[in-house]
Amino acid sequence: MSPTLRVEAYLPIVWEKHVMDAQTLASLRKGAQLLMHAFNLMDVTPLHESDGDHLHLQRLDAKVDLILHLLAQNLQGSRPLPGSVNVELGPEIVSWQETGTLPAVGDTVVLTLYLNPGLPLPVRLPAHVTASADGRVTARLAELGDELEEFWQQWVFRQHRREVHARRPGY
Prior knowledge:
Radius of gyration: 17 Å
Helix content: 40-55%
Strand order of the largest sheet: 1-2-3-6-5-4
């Protein structure tokens, strides 16, 4: 995947400095892997559908959407999401405009990203801060493991395709 592939989004992100032991890293990977896989599956539209199958899938999709909405409301409760900021996402990097304290270059951090506005479940990813100045922070994703890295890259690529498609004339 191209290292220059980037997606811009306005979403909640939180960082925290963290020491990564093997157990913490494994737990982060597992949770993020499950969510990224689910987000990727929720994003996929079947290529070929017969009319009967299409109607059945629409009904099923509506039911799943309702369940996810109710789950999201229950999980969110009265806790507000962190504030959204401009975030740049790439296959290997996350860069954002930080409004609070900046991490230092070289810090190991856990990035908490709310990628799906309809489902406030955070994806937590380990990263190393590579740049931090003038309110802009860039972190390189680290130690994701093969499966999580693949799921992340699929999601970023899909978002990039959507951005390209939306910029086409007539859309």
